[in-house]
Design brief:
Elements: H1 7-27, E1 40-42, E2 48-50, E3 58-64, H2 73-84, E4 88-94, H3 106-117, E5 122-123, H4 136-143, E6 159-162, E7 168-172, H5 181-184
Parallel strand pairs: 3-4, 4-5
Antiparallel strand pairs: 1-2, 3-6, 6-7
């Protein structure tokens, strides 16, 4: 092995190594967050919100849809919000990933939620929760270790419970109702 490189070759090797290290760091940047507080989201009204605003509270994130067999869970989410809204922040994230069951615009979704379920908990702007266009928040959420399971969201109305330190604590599949003992016992 020849270790006597010319100064130019040596500079090129060092530069190549540094570029590779930078690319590796940037490639993993979406998972570098240790908690949810580095993320922001847009509300249905177009307002920017930071998860840092909710430090010290549990957060229940739900991917929602207006034309799904689980859409009635909006009612349970609203009931949960009315009961424990001081300690628990509920945020619905409309998504059209499953069966195209959320075709509406943000304005239409807001109207639907208010008219049919009297929703007063926080609703985010429509996002993608799966696939090539997945929102960075959901990419991070789905990768986080917790006591239940890790991986992709499989259907509408899955629920992700984030603890007071901003870490994913529990995940619940679509069939878990918002007011069920399975979910409320974790609050």
């Amino acid at each position: 092995m020849n270790l006597n490189y010319s100064p130019i070759v040596l500079k090129q090797k060092i530069m190549k190594k540094n570029i590779l290290m930078i690319l590796m760091v940037l490639g993993g940047a979406s998972f570098a967050q240790e908690n949810i507080y580095d993320f922001e989201f847009e509300t249905l009204n177009g307002e920017k919100k930071s998860f840092a605003d909710y430090k010290g509270k549990k957060i229940l994130i739900v991917n929602t849809a207006s034309e799904c067999g689980f859409t009635g869970q909006y009612e349970g989410l609203q009931e949960l919000h009315e009961k424990v809204g001081e300690e628990l922040v509920i945020i619905g994230f409309p998504a059209n990933n499953f069966g195209k069951q959320e075709p509406g615009t943000n304005e239409e979704i807001a109207g639907f939620c208010k008219k049919n379920y009297g929703v007063t908990f926080q609703m985010a702007a429509k996002v993608s929760v799966k696939g090539d266009d997945i929102h960075p928040l959901f990419k991070w959420l789905c990768s986080q270790e917790n006591v239940d399971f890790v991986g992709d969201i499989k259907w509408n109305f899955e629920k992700i419970l984030v603890n007071e330190q901003g870490k994913v604590e529990h995940r619940f599949r679509s069939g878990t109702k918002p007011m069920s003992k399975e979910l409320t016992s974790k609050l």
